[in-house]
Amino acid sequence: TYKNDLPQDFVRGLGVSPSGPTGGASKRGGAAVMGCCASSELNNPSESDNTSMRIEQLDDVAVSLAPSDIIAPWNEKVRVPAEYRERGSVVTNTHERGMSLQQLELLFKLIDTALKRGPPLIDDYTKKHITRESINMYHIDKFFVRPLTNTACCSFSELVATGPQQPKWFVSHYWGTPFIDTLRMLRLHAKERGVSATNEYYRICTFANNQHDLSELHQENVVDTPFGKAIMSEECVGTVSLLNEAEATPFTRIWCIFEYYTTLDAGKKKKQRPQLFDFATIVPEGECESVYGEFNKRCAQLLLEDSNERTGTREATDHPSVDKEGGRSDDRAWWPSTVSLMGARVDVASANASRPSDKADIMRMIGDKVSDVNHQVHAKFAASALYGLVTKVAFDQGDRRYTGRPAVDQLRELVESGMLGSPAEAAQKADHENAVADAAEYVYRAACGHYSCVEYLLGIGCDPNGDSRAAAGDPDFSHPLEMAFIARNYKMVDLLLKHGADLHFKNEDGKLARDDWQIDWGSLPAHIKKQLK
């Protein structure tokens, strides 16, 4: 018997305890379970005095979600697929209600069909028609999850699963992210992390929680919450945060930041293996300019935790590669520094919550560790944020409408915060990001902040000859002098030479690097021309 899945007034009417067993049971494999909208026969306790027998009867009752049972506007013209007509299982432990990528894809197929054939669905706030490109978890919960699970009064995962689906990855996300983007990010993540589309699972709160009864979310201790148990489960290897395009709203949501904290604090102390922490986002079209002067198409991008990399992370993208001359590959997309800048400024105290009580509960559980939470999240993005400061923010500073602090002041604050380690370690990470070379390629403008930023980086120990990969011929890494010459930024050339940049720098093949540089001899100042000769 599964009394936890019955309305409490119904259970009390039967005169039995509302407590239930642990574990899960599958209806498709045998026994079925009645949910919230029980039949009139079972809902009338006066029909039998044998309450024990009445509860046992539930094992023989199948819940069939016929189209007429589902109250949703799209249901008038779209047939409910077979996999959503009967509850698949009872999974008492919420943290065992994962979703496979295949199950998510099938749901989107139904959503797409409903949007095409059914009556228009309207957003409650914008009053606009919902489209396949705009539909998000708020819409999916209202128009699909709740209607499809109403009869069984269960989570969506229990509707589609035949038993417990222990998540391999915990998903931290903002409900306002378009579902089509959520799927795109998860497809790329599954590919890079080797997650099976059919028998390995992601834990997504929209589908794991019983949206008809969320009382189990309110616990005194974070590790007792469903999401805490999911993260701390030994079967769960990592957390992936899905950041919506350009806005990265999870950085401002108290629940998301709390999930970050749980991952970085308790999750890193797991006995079997520390919890991995990955991030995914959508890169807007035109955000990234390649070394060939071409801009990216809209794509998904990952920032994956990787202990083998110098910065502790590696990137992946679903942007199509473009083959260039000499066998070079131009990916044209990378993790956007604008997102990293937002991540490096996360502040738990100013984060938002839909309900004030949620924020109060979370702040109580975090206690005196607020600064620790902020610092741990900031450190994940510090290296990429540094790059953003010396390139994009330094450029924006040249706009007369810019109202922020000078880029070099923010850069100094970032380095001195210790998030990048010592100043020498910060310099190494800046070299790894190719920060000096990429800042040197901007055409000199007094109002911009590139010169001051490069001067500061060279002062803390950045290599004026750039990352070693430039010498190895990596097309994504250039010598700072080369970039300054291309931009005809001769003030930057002087700065680099002053700090030891080598005009006679040789590549790994022994050739002078400058032989391949685009030097405009006609515009060269005499003192630089003399040094070149």
Written account of the structure:
The chain is of the alpha/beta class and 533 residues long. The protein has helices spanning 8-14, 40-43, 51-57, 101-117, 137-149, 156-160, 179-193, 205-208, 226-232, 254-264, 337-343, 356-366, 370-396, 407-416, 423-432, 435-440, 450-459, 468-471, 480-486, 490-498, 526-532; strands at 24-26, 89-91, 167-173, 201-203, 238-243, 276-283, 299-305, 313-317, 322-323, 329-330. The strands form 3 sheets. A 6-stranded mixed beta sheet has the order 4-3-5-6-7-8, sandwiched between helices. A two-stranded antiparallel sheet has the order 1-2. It has a two-stranded antiparallel ribbon with strand order 9-10. Helix 7 links the parallel strand 3 (167-173) and strand 4 (201-203). The longest helix has 27 residues, at 370-396. The radius of gyration is 28 Å and the shape is elongated.
C-alpha end-to-end distance? 89 Å
Strand order of the largest sheet: 4-3-5-6-7-8
Strand content: 5-15%
- Gyration radius, in Å: 28 Å
- The number of distinct helices, counting runs of at least 4 residues, comes to 21
Give the low-confidence spans.
Answer: 1-23, 27-35, 37-65
Mean pLDDT: 84
Number of strands: 10
Query: Major β-sheet, in short?
Result: 6 strands, mixed
- Percent of residues in helices comes to 25-40%
| Quaternary class | single chain
Shape: elongated
Class by alpha and beta content: alpha/beta
